[in-house]
Design brief:
heterotrimer, A alpha+beta, B mainly alpha, C mainly alpha, B: MetI-like fold, globular, C: mainly alpha, 2 domains, 79% helix, 0% strand, flat
Chain lengths: 366, 309, 302
């Protein structure tokens, strides 16, 4: 039983709030990722779970027990740091076994556990090396090995991949996921990279300004973001936002983006948006992947429009097209063969079935 | 389970504040205990004696009567005292200046060498700093000896001399400064070399592309980048040179006729040899203002570095 | 096009040649000046050796002072069999080793505490440590002299004219700077390392002995060398506090005892200086990088 619970958790640094009273339940064996921009309080939260930061108010529970006052070593956790924090004077074996040796675990038991972990991580040949002789990816594995060996209740990861180059990062990401599938230990993972969050997590916790914006599965966050922040943070390139108004004409609703451009709102959403007619400070949100090139047959909620392209960015498998609507820049993703050219007009299609409406005052998705 | 959790927080919350405090207290107790020997040493053998020196300076020669500022006032009306002040300043300032100059020049020379040879030269040039000063000062004393002088022997070959290196005030002052420069310049060399190594090569390359000459590179790139280290090294050296004892003591013992005394050697003559401890203490206390000023600048520099780090 | 290219090429060739030549000249001049400075810097130790190899007769004959006509090891043999000189040497050695041990025992835990653990007032104390380093021996020797006399009057323990009493005094010279060096080294160790150790279950003392000491080993070597050379070279304190021949350390012993009256035996004195300078020189020769790291630590670290 190693669920982790946070109850009204608060952290202030000299009156400056870093974490503003968050609640979170993490189930046993779950892989939860805390994600958000730097300074959002995600690392502080993790460090409070680890016991490296004292708690201003609220409680941290591990396995149903309040651990606020337990020193880190008694919390039965393991942590993987951003810069690995391997002891430079110890071999890989000594690094991995340090915690067990301090706990006076019998020698053969230590050897068994280290070898097992080394096997999982495929670092058996490296056990006698010093950290200095290892590559970045190998160090990362050793740091994970040190965590696995201790067989803790909870794994904590503090941006473990951000010191690796892009290619290795993708590789290690898969590695971490595999390891979790093997050992099934409750894991809290902190990152600022939303792709890492989406690919790794059972559930993602999006944090901003010391608060939790939304908790959900990766798909939930992508398809039904709760706030403007989550809508903009998840997905790359980020969702387009355009100021808009809702109009009603003959029982149908339309969302108007400019004098000349308005899209009909899908039938199934009419009920939901009817009350918004005429309301100011509304934002229309649509992801770039839902603005595509003109196609021969359109689905029911797809609507064509024509714009002048400002810039195009060929990416190979697709081309990003940038254009302005009422001074706001939007991005679409079109087929590279669609003939997109900067300065030319182009026919595009918006998939209104995927649209979002956001109240810019409350920053909530409606 | 959920029930249990709901019931727990108040009780545990109350207990928590206790253990929290205990945890923090234990941590800072350990920290304090580890620093305690240092604190005792500093307060017992540095701060207390320093304050005691102030008290001593206010006693009369027999050390039985309290005389207040009488010793200080006496010194202020004593010609030898003003000569010592003057000599200490001449000694410290000119020695530090030439140490810095030689250090700057030699560090550039060494830096210009191919990297392979640098170690060897650096190792050779630092030797004066490594030899205990008392011992090298004795060698200098013998080099300066009027009768057997190795220097005068060379000068004689060129038809110059003999020079009374330690026998005449002006030459004696020159000699003590020379030896101090000899001893201290290697320290500057090492510090400046370390500073030179920390200047990114790209800056010089950028300056070269902008058309800077060698001198312009030194003036616009090297000096500004080294400014901090030049300043702090000179301040350090100023303190150490100002308080110097062994070189002057061994070479001239203050002579001829007290003209090469600096504060430390004069305080020693008066206090220990002349058995007038209060007067010796008074003299040594006059070092405090200059030390204080230097310490102020050094600390400011350290704090600034601390805040940018 | 090709004509222009070849013109550029030849132009570049000429330029490149001159650049290389001016570089070579710069190098030649560097060597010339460096040799001059090296002569200046190495003259006294070389002179010690020359004089040490001469007999008194040769010195008195006033032949070329820069040359040895009849080299002999007599001076060194005489020194190494002289009770007095060996006593100086022993006193210096015992004092220096004891001071190194004491200094490190005080400085390392204090640096760990000030640099890593922090407690109320620890920042001020760290600055204070640095300030004490700036307080010179020439300010403290008179009050310390008086304090030692006072201790004798009130407890009967004699500290003046006792070589071992210097073991108590010398740490004031070494500990502040050693602490300062070690604070710098400890602070350069990433914070995650002690957090990892905390999570692994290490206490603060284990953290110090199992993680920080091994990782900061270069700093410890540098501080040790510093403490040793300072204690070996110190002149003012032993000059002020010790008098009898059997209580002297090397620097003072050479100055006060070997130079007796007008009969200077300069061959022996110079030999004594050279032998006395040997321990720091040998340490320097083998551990130059640590020695230099310790020197520059004061200004570039912390």
């Amino acid at each position: 039983m190693a669920q982790v619970m946070l109850r009204k958790l608060v952290k202030n640094y000299d009156e400056t709030p870093a974490v503003r009273g968050i609640d979170l339940d993490i189930a046993d064996k779950e892989f939860v990722v805390l994600v958000g921009p730097s300074g959002c309080g995600k690392s502080t939260t993790l460090r409070m779970i680890a016991g490296l930061e004292d708690i201003t108010a609220g409680d941290v529970l591990i396995g149903g027990e309040v651990v606020n006052d337990m020193p880190p070593k008694d919390r039965d956790i393991a942590m993987v740091f951003q810069n690995y924090a391997l002891y430079p004077h110890m071999s890989v074996y000594e690094n991995m076994s340090f915690g067990l040796r301090l706990k006076k675990v019998p020698k053969d038991e230590i050897a068994r556990r280290v070898e097992n972990a080394a096997q999982i991580l495929d670092i058996s040949e490296l056990l006698q090396r010093k950290p200095k002789q290892l590559s970045g990816g190998q160090r990362q594995r050793v740091a994970m090995g040190r965590a696995i060996v201790r067989d803790p209740k909870v794994f904590l990861f503090d941006e473990p991949l951000s010191n690796l180059d892009a290619k290795l990062r993708v590789q290690m990401r898969t590695e971490i996921k595999k390891v979790h599938q093997k050992v099934r230990t409750t894991t809290v993972y902190v990152t600022h990279d939303q792709i890492e969050a989406m690919t790794l997590a059972d559930r993602v916790v999006v944090m901003n300004g010391g608060n939790i914006e939304q908790v959900g599965t990766p798909n939930d966050l992508y398809h039904t973001p709760a706030t403007k922040f989550v809508a903009g943070f998840i997905g790359s390139p980020a969702m387009n936002f355009v100021p808009c108004t809702i109009e009603e004409a003959a029982g149908a609703l339309r969302v108007r983006l400019s004098k000349d451009l308005a899209f009909p709102i899908p039938q199934e959403r009419t009920q939901r948006y009817r009350a918004l007619v005429g309301q100011p400070s509304l934002l229309f949100g649509l992801r770039p992947e839902h603005i595509t090139e003109q196609r021969p047959h359109l689905e029911s909620n797809q609507h064509p429009f024509e714009v002048e392209l400002e810039v195009t960015e060929p990416m190979g498998m697709e081309t990003m097209v940038f254009f302005l609507i009422e001074g706001t820049e939007l991005v679409g993703r079109v087929n590279p063969d669609a003939g997109a050219q900067a300065g030319k007009r182009m026919k595009l299609v918006a998939d209104l079935g995927k649209m979002h409406l956001i109240d810019d005052a409350s920053r909530r998705v409606l | 389970m959920a029930n249990g959790i709901a019931a727990q927080p108040p009780a545990v919350g109350a207990g928590r504040r206790m253990t929290m405090q205990k945890f923090m207290r234990r941590r800072s107790t350990t920290a304090f205990a580890l620093a305690l020997p240092l604190i005792l040493l500093i307060s017992g053998l540095v701060i207390y004696p320093a304050l005691f020196a102030v008290y001593l300076s206010m006693l009369d020669r027999t050390m039985e009567h309290f005389t207040g500022l009488r010793n200080i006032l006496f010194l202020l009306h004593f010609d030898t005292f003003w000569m010592v002040v003057e000599q200490s300043c001449i000694f410290a300032i000119s020695a530090v200046f030439f140490k810095a100059l030689i250090g700057f020049v030699t560090s550039h020379l060494v830096h210009n060498l191919p990297p392979k040879g640098q170690r060897k030269w650096r190792g050779m040039l630092l030797v004066p700093w490594v030899i205990p000063t008392a011992m090298s000062a004795i060698a200098w004393f013998w080099l300066f000896d009027p009768q057997y002088s190795a220097f005068n022997w060379i000068l004689h070959k060129f038809g110059i001399g003999p020079i009374p290196w330690l026998g005449v005030t002006s030459w004696a002052r020159f000699s003590v400064i020379l030896v101090n420069v000899w001893y201290g310049a290697p320290f500057f060399l090492i510090m400046y070399l370390a500073a030179l190594k920390s200047v990114p090569e790209q800056l010089y390359e950028a300056a070269a592309i902008d058309g800077a000459s060698w001198w312009q590179k030194v003036w616009y790139v090297t000096l500004p980048m080294m400014r901090n280290i030049i300043a702090i090294t000179m301040l350090f050296s100023l303190i150490v040179t100002f308080a110097n004892f062994d070189i002057v003591r061994i070479l001239t013992a203050g002579g001829p006729v007290d003209t090469t005394h600096v504060f430390a050697t004069w305080a020693f003559s008066l206090g220990i040899q002349g058995n007038n401890i209060p007067m010796g203490a008074s003299v040594s206390l006059f070092m405090l203002p200059i030390l204080g000023v230097a310490a102020f600048f050094i600390l400011r520099d350290i704090n600034r570095r601390g805040s940018t780090a | 096009m090709s004509a222009a290219a070849s013109a550029i090429e030849t132009g570049a060739l000429v330029k490149r040649g001159s650049l290389r030549r001016s570089r070579r000249w710069a190098l030649v001049w560097s060597y010339v000046f460096l040799i001059m400075f090296a002569v200046f810097f190495l003259m006294p130790p070389v002179y010690m050796l020359i004089m040490g190899l001469k007999t008194s007769a040769e010195t008195a004959a006033m032949t070329n002072p820069w040359w040895v006509y009849h080299p002999t090891l007599d001076n060194f043999i005489a020194l190494l069999t002289s009770r007095t000189y060996l006593t100086f040497f022993r006193n210096s050695a015992v004092i220096s080793l004891a001071v190194v041990v004491i200094s490190m025992l005080i400085a390392v835990p204090a640096a760990f505490s000030l640099g890593r653990m922090k407690f109320w007032g620890s920042t001020t104390l760290a600055a204070g440590v640095f300030l004490t380093y700036l307080v010179p021996d020439s300010l403290l020797f008179i009050p310390l002299f008086k304090i030692m006399a006072w201790v004798h009057e009130h407890t009967g323990i004699t500290l003046l004219n006792r070589w071992w009493a210097l073991i108590i005094i010398y740490p004031t010279l070494t500990v502040p700077f050693c602490t300062w060096i070690m604070i710098g080294y400890f602070q350069s160790i990433p914070k995650e390392l002690d957090e990892a150790a905390l999570i692994d279950g290490a206490g603060y003392i284990q953290m110090l002995t199992k993680i920080f000491l091994p990782v900061a080993l270069p700093g410890i070597i540098a501080a040790t060398i510093f403490a040793f050379t300072v204690s070996w070279s110190e002149f003012l304190y032993p000059m002020a506090f010790t008098v009898s021949a059997d209580q002297l350390v090397l620097p003072v012993g050479i100055v006060t005892t070997l130079i007796n009256g007008d009969v200077y035996n300069w061959g022996q004195i110079m030999g004594a200086c050279l032998l006395g300078a040997a321990p720091p020189l040998i340490i320097y020769a083998f551990l130059m990088d640590y020695y230099i790291a310790g020197l520059t630590a004061g200004a570039t670290k912390g």
